[in-house]
Structure formats: C-alpha cells, structure tokens
Task: inverse folding
C-alpha cells in the first residue's frame, strides 16, 4: 500500500519533469526575455534566424516591440541609410516602412509611427561585430 502511494505520488513529479525536458528547444540567440514573444510568434524566430545568417549590419539590426494605434507591433530597425526599417503586426505582416528609402521617410504608410509608438521593449539585438 505504501509502495502504491509512493508510485502515485511520484507520478505527477515525473510527468512534470518529462514535460519540461520535452518542450521545444529555444533558439540560443533569442534573449530569455524575448522567448515568450518568439514562441508566440514563430515568424519572429524565423526573422531573427534570417538576420543572424546575413552579414552583420552597420548599425546592428535590432527588433523592438511597441504598442502602435492600440496594437502590438514589431519594428526592425533600418540597416543603413536607404534601407528602410519595417513595422510588422503580431502575425508577421509588414504594416509599413517608417524610415529609410530615398527620402529617409519610408513608404509613407505610417508617418506618425515614431511619435505614436509606446511601451518600447527590445526583443533582439545583433551583437556580432561588423
């Protein structure tokens, strides 16, 4: 009887350990604070992986999360002068390019982005040397 109790008492602990060990691997390049975002948005993990496979940019690429017009958005910084930054919705769709391009003012689809964005959170930063 005591052995049965011990087995049934240990079963939940064993299940928790197995579930923790079997969870999907997290990309080591994504900071701990951003893993929840990356897991919730697989496209974000793919974007970060693609950026890591590219040559390092100057200035380094960064991804920020903001609230913009009452929705969660992600901003990939401009890699250089003419190359525009991109604002993505939470599903990975490009909403606009708020900067860069020939005029330096992006594509004009979100001219108020820099003034209206709120709740900045750095999600990822490329720390490689360029």
Result:
């Amino acid at each position: 009887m005591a052995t049965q109790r011990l087995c049934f008492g240990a079963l939940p602990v064993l299940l928790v350990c197995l579930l923790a060990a079997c969870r999907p691997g997290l990309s080591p390049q994504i900071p701990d604070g951003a893993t929840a975002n990356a897991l919730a948005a697989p496209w974000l993990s793919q974007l970060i992986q693609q950026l890591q496979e590219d040559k390092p940019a100057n200035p380094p690429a960064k991804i920020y999360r903001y609230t913009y017009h009452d929705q969660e958005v992600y901003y990939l910084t401009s890699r250089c002068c003419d190359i525009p930054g991109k604002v993505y919705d939470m599903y990975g769709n490009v909403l606009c390019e708020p900067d860069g391009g020939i005029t330096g003012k992006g594509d004009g689809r979100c001219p108020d982005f820099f003034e209206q964005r709120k709740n900045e959170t750095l999600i990822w930063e490329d720390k490689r040397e360029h």
